[in-house]
Amino acid sequence: MNISPAQWHSVDSSDSVSRKRGELERFPPGQDGRFDALTDLAGALYDRYKREGEIADLDEAITLLRDALGLRPIEDDDQSFSLNNLAVCLSNRYETLGVAGDLEEAITLGREALVLCPPGHPDRCVSLHNLACDLRMRFVKQAAIHDLEEAIKLLRTALELRPCGHPHRSSSLHQLSLCLSNRHASQQVVADLEEAVSLVREALELRPLGHPDRVLSLNHLAHLLRRRFQQQASKHDLEEAIKILREALELHPSGNLYRALSFHELGLCLSHRYDDQGVLADLEEAIILGRTALELHLPGHPDHSVSLHNLACNFRRRFMKQAGISDLEVAIKLHRAALELRPSGHPRRSSSVYQLAICLSGRYDSQGEVVDLEEAITLARAALELRPPGHPDRILSLNNLAHLLRRRSQTQDSVDDLEEA
C-alpha cells in the first residue's frame, strides 16, 4: 500500500515518536496546527509499527487519524489524503489481527477518497491502488470474484498513471501480480499465471538490494514459481523458488512482519521437492520451517490455519516415510485445529476435511480402530460435497472415498460399500 504523501511526506525512520508527542502537546484542541500535529504523530507511530510490529503503535495511529479527520471539513480539498491514511492503517491492522470490520471500513473510506480524486487529481493513482489492495484482501477472505475483478481493473488504471520511472510503479506491478495470481487460483486460466510471473519479475527489477519491499517481491515470485511447478512439473521453477526464498530469509531482519511468509513458502517448496525427489533432509527442514511459521502466525492471525494445515501435512509425510505414530497423532491434532478455523463456507475447508480423512485412514491402517475408519468416511463424503464436478481436486476425493469404502467392505463384508466404491 501507499501512504498519501501529502500528509506524511516528512515522516521517516529518523523521526522520534516522543518528539512528535511534544509537538502535539503544543497544539491543544481548538488551536490551529493541531490537525498537522495529530497527523504527524500518527505517521511516526505508523512508521515505527512497520519497522517494529507493535500493534499498540498502529492502534494509537488509528485513533489519532480519526481525531484528525474530524477536524477537516468534508469539502476540504485535502480530505482524500486523510481518508487514505486512515484506510491504510485499518488495512494494516486487518492484515495483523484479521478483524473484518477494519477491512470493511477501509474499503468504505477508500471509495470516499476515490470520489474526491477524479481523473487528473495528483493522488488518484494512490486512491486507485489502495482501494484495489483492500478489495483483493476481501476477495481472499470471502472469495467474491467481483471484488477481484474490480481490483484488477483499478490496478490496471493505476499502472497507466505510473509509467516507467514513477517511484510507485513497482507497487502497482506487485499488487496486480497478486490479483492475477488469485484469479488464476480461482479460475485456472494459465495466461493469468504467466502474466503474474512477468509482472512480479518487473517489480523485482525495480526493487534492488536495499529496497524495503524487495523481500515481498521475492516471496511472491517464489510462490508463483512453486505454483507453476505444480502445474507444469518444471524442476527449474522449483529450484529457482527455493533459491529466491533463501535470499529472502537472509534479507529479513529478526521480527520482520513478513518473515513468517518466507518460512511458510520455503517449507512448501521443500515439501514439494521431497515429494519429487524423496530426500528426507528436505522434509525435516520443511517441518522445522513450518514450526517456526506457526510460532509467528499465532492464534488470531489470518494465516494461523494455513500454518497448522501445512505443518500437519508434513508430519503425515514423515509418518508415511518412518511410520512413527507420534507424527500421525500430531498431524491429526493440527488438522482438527485448522478445521475449527475453517467453518462452512471457508474456501479451504475441503482441503482440511480431506487431509484429516487421510490421516484417520492412516491411523486405522496402523491401529485398526473402526471409529477412525467411520470418521474418515464421513469426512471424505463431506470433502466430496465441497468439490463438485469441475473442481480440480474432485478426483482425489472420489478416489479416497472409494478406497475407504472398499476397506470397510473388506472389514464388514458390505456389498453396498463395494458397489458404491
UniProtKB/TrEMBL annotation:
Region span, Disordered: 1-29
Source taxon at top rank: Eukaryota
Compositionally biased tracts (Basic and acidic residues): 17-26
Gene3D superfamilies, per the entry: Tetratricopeptide repeat domain
UniProt-listed Pfam families: TPR_10 (PF13374)
InterPro entries reported in the protein's UniProt record: TPR-like_helical_dom_sf (IPR011990)
Name of protein: Kinesin light chain
Organism the protein comes from: Pisolithus microcarpus 441
Lineage: Eukaryota, Fungi, Dikarya, Basidiomycota, Agaricomycotina
